[in-house]
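Appendix B: complex inputs.
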Amino acid sequence: MTARTLSEIGEFGLIARLAKGIHLQKNIIKGIGDDAAVLPFTKEKHLLFTTDLLCAGVHFSAKENGRLVGRKALACSLSDIAAMGGVATSAVVSIGLPKTCRLRYVEDIYRGMNGLAKEFCVSIVGGDTIQSPCLIVNVALLGEVERSHLVLRSGAKAGDKIFVTGPLGRSFPTKKHLSFTPRLSEARKLVQSFKPSAMIDISDGLAADLGHILQESEKSAILDVTSIPLSKDATLDNALFDGEDFELLFTTSAGVAKKLFGQNALKVFCIGEIVRGPRKLFLRDNRGYLKALKPKGYTHF
Amino acid sequence: MTARTLSEIGEFGLIARLAKGIHLQKNIIKGIGDDAAVLPFTKEKHLLFTTDLLCAGVHFSAKENGRLVGRKALACSLSDIAAMGGVATSAVVSIGLPKTCRLRYVEDIYRGMNGLAKEFCVSIVGGDTIQSPCLIVNVALLGEVERSHLVLRSGAKAGDKIFVTGPLGRSFPTKKHLSFTPRLSEARKLVQSFKPSAMIDISDGLAADLGHILQESEKSAILDVTSIPLSKDATLDNALFDGEDFELLFTTSAGVAKKLFGQNALKVFCIGEIVRGPRKLFLRDNRGYLKALKPKGYTHF
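Resulting structure:
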């Protein structure tokens, strides 16, 4: 039977289905299917291009502080540029506002966004402001990355170690999802000194986002249960499935991994390894037993 | 008294207020305040960057054909790139879908968008798909333009003639707003052969969009009532205030205007002239009498 509803096909089924027929010129380096698109730019650099849509009641409470809403809208896109190993440059911002929205609230959204833009030297260069039934913020962001420093989801090799940049789980109840620092400076240190083979930011949850790396790299992975760093009061399930942690998840060769262990400049946690085979995910408990895991996580449908 | 609500300050008051405090790196050629942002790119070219947010019930009926919705979402952004004299290259698409949305409807949105993307050699390189209370489509679009061909809103000079590329008014009832062809090929002919001094696309209405050129160029204008081309069944008021015509409105020197009159490659209508003085708009009737006109038009608040 053909799927008819969005919940039958799911968010990632939908994206895969839509991506199939989509128009792409030949010069595009990477289109749909990574944290940001990769486009031709200069001799030394690629251009990065990403978009994130946030909606009240889905990504933040309709009563949430405006500054935090604006901050998060830009931070999500910054996190995408970080996941490619890049530096963010310019953003355009679309805002849909309910008729009853107070001017001060809109100004707060911009203030929150602008504060983070300053912090990361990003210019807000344009936008679109409309009336809409619910509060919506879309940030489209450009970045750039040296050709030699670009990291895709597709580069993980068997034998690579898997790392995350911070503890995971309970990002919503702790409000980390509103106040997290996008890992741009960590990403730059990584690509400059530690050559990650694959990278993604954790927005849908560790299991789902590692699943994306496995999908694109055509590999499997083993996660060591006891090595996964948990946020305060978070369970293993929270870490695996909650999403919106916005930490970086990356892989490196075993050789580079050793260098990462012996340094203090960058706080990272080794949580497992890449193995051969097609897109399977296993948990290894403290006795060494393996258990298969579905790469589920947050999905919109 | 300080404005407290969006309707007190209005859409353009809001944009001006938000733009004031916004963060901008020094290398940005043009930020907020034109049809697209202008960013440094190569030795010969600038990069163009624009975003358009469309929402069901505002920009299209919630029951509208999906293909036309997708087509319009991309067409609006293409029109922005045309207004800068540029060529469109890559788009990222954010879609917010109500839970009850049928899969076929979403696919239709993409089909409509994709058809137009092919026609204008634009790559759809990424996106974001979320659940939201109402149907939302945001297209962020990149383009490029030779440095010598860039046209801003700010270049109109006293004595310049004012042109539009097609008849105006009643775009909503006639559904032109869903099916219009963005004037990219006309824009390229114009910048290559006729050096417009200022250009904008008519989205808010002739009076409001000419108002934007006058604002940025610090000039005034006289429109000849009898020369304004009207769409079928449209009144002068429809042409002046309806909006969503997506024709190009541009100015050229009187010398270039003569060349435009004597050619057939490009259908344009001369509708008035730029005069000295600060941001005033006049209508001239068939007896030569002048009447001041407020540059009002469609506004979201």
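The helical segments of chain A are 6-20, 66-83, 103-119, 176-179, 184-193, 206-217, 236-241, 254-261.
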